[in-house]
Design brief:
It contains 5 helices and 16 strands. The protein is an alpha+beta fold and about 260 residues long. The chain is globular and about 35 Å long. The longest helix has 17 residues. It binds N-(4-sulfamoylphenyl)-beta-D-glucopyranosylamine and zinc ion. Zinc ion binds next to strand 7.
Length: about 260
């Protein structure tokens, strides 16, 4: 009810009618700003296990019409959250030509060019992703901001694989690589809150970790990826990002925490 919807002209404005959880109390993404943040000395750097994959592991890459997604193996997990959270997939949220700032979360109102999500589920408590996805302790997602820098090295998600996946429904295989290279070097500074899936069905099931420091990507790769995501966008247009405008409401039931 306290939601302001930003949508592309052909975007979907009716998520809450179709998906009862969209627009609910724990809706993500959010703007991370000073008056909702609080330092929490009990938060520890995450212990990431099995992120360094061998090149012989083939990871499936799929364009599902609104994003490009890489399937991840159960040998990859986070050890020191309240439960053990096992990786299932990673995907990216990008802008397009009309709206180049594609991140979902913002910091003090600032958008980033893109945002990487590494999705994990609570395999300690739930049998599979489907059983976990609507439970309050079901998912843990790591969010990494991606910023454009002229001198940046090519981001590790190599363009040749994304190009093979530029249309909805296309699939490719990526040789295994060190997923930790997609994360910022400083992992001990992050924002932590309890929120939701950012897209339908919007279940309030996600323990979010949003890293404070972005990773950098070259201009060249952004342009290529925007082509990929522009095509994906036209293939599937019922997509928009919601921004809660009343963060006081959100704050009342959500312990916002930050390490700095
Ligand atoms: S996100 O990380 O909050 N952007 C996000 C949003 C939606 C999903 C996952 C993450 N959706 C669900 C699908 C399920 C799938 C599961 C894990 O992701 O609805 O079908 O099993 O991949
Ligand atoms: Zn996402």
């Amino acid at each position: 009810s306290h939601l302001f919807l930003f949508c592309s002209p052909d975007g979907e404005t009716t998520w809450p009618q179709k998906y009862p959880f969209c627009g609910g109390g724990f809706q993500s993404p959010i703007d991370l700003h000073n008056n909702i943040l609080q330092y929490d000395s009990t938060l520890l750097p995450l212990e990431l296990v099995g992120y360094n994959m061998s090149t012989t592991d083939q990871l499936p890459l799929t364009n599902n019409g609104h994003s490009v997604r890489v399937g991840l193996p159960p040998t990859m997990y986070i050890r020191n959250l309240p439960f053990q959270y096992t990786a299932t997939q990673l995907h990216l949220h990008w802008g397009n030509r009309k709206k180049p700032e594609g991140s979902e979360h913002t910091i003090h109102g600032k958008h980033f060019a893109a945002e990487l999500h590494i999705v994990h589920y609570n395999a300690e408590k739930y049998r599979d992703v489907t059983a976990a996805m609507d439970k309050s302790d079901g998912f843990a997602v790591l969010a990494i901001f991606i910023e454009v820098k002229v001198s940046a090295e090519m981001y590790i998600l190599k363009i040749q694989y994304l190009q093979r996946c530029s249309l909805s429904g296309q699939k490719a295989q990526v040789p295994g690589f060190n997923i930790q290279e997609l994360l910022p070097k400083k992992l001990n500074e992050y924002y932590r809150y309890e929120g939701s899936l950012t897209t339908p069905p919007c279940y309030p099931s996600v323990l979010w970790t949003v890293f404070r420091h972005p990773v950098y990507i070259s201009e060249e790769q952004v342009n290529l990826n925007q082509t990929v995501f522009y095509l994906a966008h036209t293939a599937h247009s019922n997509y928009c990002i919601k921004y809660p405008t009343n963060s006081a409401d959100l704050c009342a039931n959500t312990p916002y925490q930050m390490i700095s």
